[in-house]
Design brief:
Length: about 350
């Protein structure tokens, strides 16, 4: 009888709640305004011949590398950051190896590591989701082959200084250290161009968030040319589709669109955090396009009441250290105002308003 590998059979399947998403989508950290008009115009110009050819990734990689101040050999385009994680694990992990992951965080790090037969070593974030540097360093051993850190982190929105991440990479030269910068634009800080960046450090980026291209699944894995060449061996030469490759250069060229949206999100994030404080709701300051708020036992009812008002938010109460927490995506100024108005109603209805101490 045909059977899957033991590592696959033991995986916990990740099934995001995508069904029935009608309303203002503040649950998956997507752009709430969509992509650049220039991207839509390029989409409309794609002809039948372009779709009949196998996609050619390298010319677009060269353009992205130029934007990032890198050589083309240092950049690999992927089918979203998910594939970047998958390829990194497939390249550097074997059965019995260890992958260190700071939790709570994005679920796919653990899933792809476990699929390779590796043992996941979770390191719990510190108080108020602070980065657990000393604990992480203490868990590095001879079997450590991958370390994954999201910066800013999802779902907490917390960020860690780049020098700390460089310290982690230097402490584990035998491991591929992935810094997932999916929310880079909203944070504005990166380790990609750091002086003395170790060869084992990889950086992932996405066009799903600030660029509004989640449906096209475009990501980047960047690093030193040698290690990236090893990851490239594992990747399919046609992993990024022709439509995504056709529109990505237009998305890159319309930085004015991206910068305008990012500025709106940053202002909205500050406004939302001020409102949460005024309502007496506990949250942690975020550096991403979302804010994690601790509602407590009423979190399910809180989510339901927002949905009744046409707003979708994400339950994160099952993540380590996130009991009773809900994640709120920050979108355009208009959508932030809509969210704040609904929050006031729901907090009042559920009696969640807490006394704010000076």
């Amino acid at each position: 009888m045909l059977e899957a590998r033991a590592a696959v059979k033991s995986l916990h399947a990740y099934r995001p709640p995508l069904a029935g998403r009608q309303g203002l989508r503040l649950d998956f950290n997507e752009s709430t305004v969509g992509c650049s008009p220039r991207v839509l115009a390029r989409l409309r110009s794609i002809d039948a011949e372009a779709l009949a050819r196998y996609p050619e990734r390298e010319p677009v990689e060269a353009e992205i590398a130029n934007c990032l101040g890198l050589d083309a050999a240092q950049v690999l385009l992927t089918n979203g950051v998910d594939e970047a994680i998958h390829l990194l694990c497939a390249t550097y992990l074997e059965s019995g190896d260890e992958a260190i992951i700071v939790v709570p965080t994005f679920a796919m790090y653990a899933i792809f590591a476990q699929a390779e037969g590796a043992r996941v070593v979770p390191v719990l974030s510190g108080e108020n989701f602070s980065f657990p540097l000393e604990e992480l360093l203490s868990r590095i051993g001879p079997r450590t082959r991958v370390i994954a850190v999201a910066n800013p982190n999802n779902p907490t929105g917390a960020a860690v200084d780049g020098e700390v991440l460089l310290q982690v990479a230097r402490a584990a030269p035998q491991a591929a250290v992935l810094v997932d910068e999916a929310y880079f634009e909203f944070h504005g800080r990166t380790v990609l161009n750091s002086a003395g960046r170790p060869e084992n450090l990889f950086v992932a980026r996405t066009f799903s968030k600030a660029y509004g291209l989640a449906g096209l699944r475009i990501g980047i894995l960047a690093g030193s040319a040698g290690p990236i060449s090893m990851v490239r061996r594992v990747a399919s030469p046609y992993n990024v589709n022709a439509v995504a490759l056709a529109v990505l250069p237009e998305a890159l060229r319309d930085q004015e669109f991206v910068e305008h949206y990012v500025a709106e999100v940053r202002r909205g994030r500050m406004e939302l955090e001020r409102e949460l404080a005024a309502l007496g709701l506990h949250y942690r300051p975020s550096r991403a396009n979302f804010v994690l708020v601790r509602i407590g036992d009423a979190h399910a009812e809180f989510i339901k009441e927002l949905r009744v008002r046409g707003i979708l938010v994400r339950d994160r109460s099952n993540d380590p250290g996130c009991e009773g927490c809900v994640r709120l995506t920050v979108g355009s100024s208009e959508h932030t105002r809509t969210l704040i108005h609904a929050l006031r109603e729901v907090v009042e209805k559920l009696g969640l308003r807490r006394e704010v101490r000076a």
